[in-house]
Amino acid sequence: MEYGLSTYLYVNERLSSHILDKILGAGFQNIELFAARQHLDYTDRHHVGDVAQWFRDHQVNLHSVHAPLYGDADWGQLGGLAVSVAYLERRPRIDSMDEIKRALDIADYLPFRYLIVHMGLPGEEYELSKFDAVMTSLEHLKVSAKDRGVQLLLENIPNELGTPERLVEFLQYTRLNVKICFDTGHAHMTHGLHPAFETLRTYIASTHVHDNRGEKDEHLMPFDGDIDWTEAVRDLRRGEGQFPVLFEIRDYGPEMTSLSRLAEVIDRMESLPEED
After folding, report:
1. pLDDT digits (tens, 9 = 90+) for 170-204
2. pTM of the predicted model, to two decimals?
3. Which of 48, 50, 112, 207 has the most other CB atoms within 10 Å of its CB?
4. DSSP state, 161?
5. How many alpha carbons fall within 13 Å on the CB side of residue 197?
6. What is the pLDDT of residue 80?
7. From CA 47, how far away is CA 166, in angstroms rounded?
8. Where are the domains of the chain?
9. Of 271, 233, 244, 238, whose CA–CA distance to 3 is shortest?
């Protein structure tokens, strides 16, 4: 399998060439940038320019960018908007689209393939009218994305709007040419990883791979939670060549979370049997 890493691991640090050197040194050629202002300030042309220069210097292609979740540099604690394409109210929805478009502007300096977008906020309840709000938002964003050669991906998330079944329903309802970023941890928290994968399999273009214990979105290293990774890896192998196994793990300190431990995880995944 082909592997990648999200800079979410370093989300509380300003993204620098030192961080990117470590990621590349660990063997990851598929990189996703996490667009959070405290980490990657997509509104700062100089910061984006420095990051873009690193990619050019090292001849590494940027796989994807995760759209911002908040409009400030402290996860909403500074009063920034919680970004959502599903707001029924027009003003916050437009503000959210504007924030996402600022992250899309990264492609003016640094081309990338996919922009990962959440469908609503954590705990969001389902309403059909929200499908219309999301459709309006995505149609607007797709214009900016297409101009930059970027494809939008919706991520399955633990709310009533972004479940695998709702995502398929949304795509069939809207007929938008949008694909899926399959998140293993979120699938495990909802209806189970294998059923979620089966539901979304034909739509998947990228992944977020991490573990948890089924209740909280912990973003643990694989094998540190209670996902059945023998079954999960078999599913992921079915998409080999179509999408990378892209780790989106949280920093729990050097003993719990390190690139050397991640290398051990990859070795363990590779050693899992193909079939029983």
Report:
1. 999 999 989 999 999 999 998 899 999 999 999 99
2. 0.96
3. 207
4. S
5. 19
6. 80
7. 37
8. 3-271
9. 244
